Amino acid sequence: MKNVTDSFVSLGHWPSAGSFGFNTDILATNPINLSVVLGVLIYFGKGVLTDLLDNRKQRILSTIRNSEELRRSAIEQLEKARYRLRKVETEADEYRVNGYSEIEREKANLINATSDSLERLENYKNETLRFEQQRAINQVRQRVFQQALEGALGTLNTCLNSELHFRTISANIGILGTMEEITN
After folding, report:
1. CA dihedral over 71, 73, 79, 82, signed as positive or negative
2. What string of DSSP letters covers 105-144?
3. Which of 25, 35, 23, 32 is nearest to 3 (CA)?
4. Which of 74, 85, 86, 165 counts the most CB atoms within 10 A of its CB?
5. Is residue 7 within 8 Å of 28, Cβ to Cβ?
6. Rounded distance between C-alpha atoms, residue 141 and residue 138, angstroms
7. How far apart are CA 62 and CA 70, in angstroms?
8. Residue 104 CB: number of other CB atoms within 10 A?
């Protein structure tokens, strides 16, 4: 420390104008230089540093406010999305339940329609069978009648004379014509 005080004391007497030099004693000159530089920095830089710190503080505060607004907006959007999700899930459940009941309804309708179609086909088949039976019976009747008629005509031809024969044939033709009209 003695060197430091000596350097202040040596400031009191300046060497003569002819001798100018540098003080190379680092321990003696360094604290003085540092104190001068710090004093100048504090005096002139205080305002600049305060302005820089205030600007930085304002930017940080505005960033925090923006972040809070974005956070609130994100929370609102999340709540809206959750509400929509619940609503869509509810609708999906309703569609699923309604869809199953609709499927069951369609299934029952299809079974009923198929049953009705089968019943109609069965009725049509029975009607067709009855018609074919009736037609076969009619054909057999006609064949039996025709054979009986031919047999009777054969018997009549051998027993009757030509005039009686002619009248009998005419009468039988008339009867056959009316019978044929009735059957058709």
Report:
1. negative
2. HHHHHHHHHHHHHHHHHHHHHHHHHHHHHHHHHHHHHHHH
3. 25
4. 165
5. yes
6. 5
7. 12
8. 10
How does the average pLDDT of the chain come out, rounded?
Answer: 82
- In sign, the C-alpha dihedral spanning 31, 35, 36, 37 is positive
Output phi, psi for 24, to 5 deg. -95, 5
Write out pLDDT tens, residues 75-134. Answer: 999 999 999 999 999 998 888 888 788 888 888 999 999 999 999 999 999 999 999 999
| pLDDT for res 68 | 94
The closest alpha carbon to 154, from 140, 165, 142, 143, belongs to: 165
Q: What is the pLDDT of residue 132?
A: 92
User: Hey, what's the torsion of the CAs at 137, 140, 146, 149, to 10 degrees?
Assistant: -80
pTM reported for the whole predicted model: 0.36
Residue in the structure block whose two tokens are 């309708």: 109
What are the start-end ranges of the H helices in the chain? 2-12, 26-159, 162-183
How high is the pLDDT of residue 1? 47
What is the token pair recorded at 123?
Answer: 């009725």
| Position 49 pLDDT exceeds 90 | no
User: Is the pLDDT higher at 103 or at 65?
Assistant: 65
